[in-house]
Amino acid sequence: MPFSKRARGARGALLNIVGPAAIGLSLTTLAAATLVAQSPDLVPTSVTGPASAQIGQSIQATVVYENQGTATSSNTWQGRIYLSTDQTITTADIHVDTWVQNTDLTPGASDSHVGTFVVPSVTPGTYFLGAIVDVNDAETESDETNNSLAATVTAAPAIGLNPTTLTYAATVGTDPPTQVVTVTNTGGGTLNWTATVDQGWLDAAPSSGSLAAGASEDITVTVTSSGR
């Protein structure tokens, strides 16, 4: 409580003594907050193409991709299409096409690319058609392990003949030696082949067959001079 006192007979100023004032204290409890980084997540959702193809053939492949993250993908990034002998698509596989994504993808939005390319000179067989999005790592994503996807494409069968021509020399009454033509499936899948003759003095056996990729079969060609 404040009070004042002046001493008798003394000269001077009035001394005011003030007691301590009440101090108000307010305490506020702060709740812990969890901060979650907002990032895009680019994911290929489908890769489609023809069921079979021949070496040197021009084909198309379609890649559909989506931003499954929580932030907009706004950087310019590259995507690539590959041919692979297995379902694990990497940059070490056979690169056949590239595209550039230069438009934004908001969370949940999707886009697609249709690539046209010529099947390169590869060993015939079954290949996986695949794609990698953001192959140049232009985006910082919440998951960097889901940027690739594979589909299956099988090389079409193709016929190979060796030799491609036969020449015979014979005299009347004497048959020339038989000759052999080897037919090979130089493509993929199954090759169904047929050999036909249009002369009575010519014969080919067997006259048909089926060959798996890389397989071969001999056709024996016979000339009967008496049939002329």
Can you offer a commentary on this structure?
By secondary structure, the chain is an all-beta fold. It is 0% helix and 43% strand. The protein has no helices and 16 strands. The strands form 5 sheets. Strands 4-10-9-6-7 form a 5-stranded mixed β-sheet, with no helix packed on it. A 4-stranded antiparallel β-sheet has the order 11-12-16-14, with no helix packed on it. Strands 3-5-8 form a 3-stranded antiparallel β-sheet, with no helix packed on it.
Tags for this entry?
228 residues; mainly beta; five-stranded mixed β-sheet; four-stranded antiparallel β-sheet; rod-shaped; disordered N terminus
Topology:
Elements: E1 3-5, E2 15-17, E3 42-48, E4 52-53, E5 58-67, E6 77-84, E7 94-101, E8 110-118, E9 126-132, E10 148-155, E11 159-162, E12 179-185, E13 190-194, E14 202-205, E15 208-212, E16 216-223
Parallel strand pairs: 4-10
Antiparallel strand pairs: 1-2, 3-5, 5-8, 6-7, 6-9, 9-10, 11-12, 12-16, 13-15, 14-16
Chain-averaged pLDDT: 86
Number of strands: 16
End-to-end gap: 145 Å
Helix content: under 10%
Largest sheet data: 5 strands, mixed
Structural class: mainly beta
Number of helical stretches of at least 4 residues:
0
Shape: rod-shaped
Strands side by side in the biggest sheet: 4-10-9-6-7
Rg is 41 Å
**From N to C, what is the helix and strand string?**
EEEEEEEEEEEEEEEE
Indicate the low-confidence ranges by residue numbers: 3-13
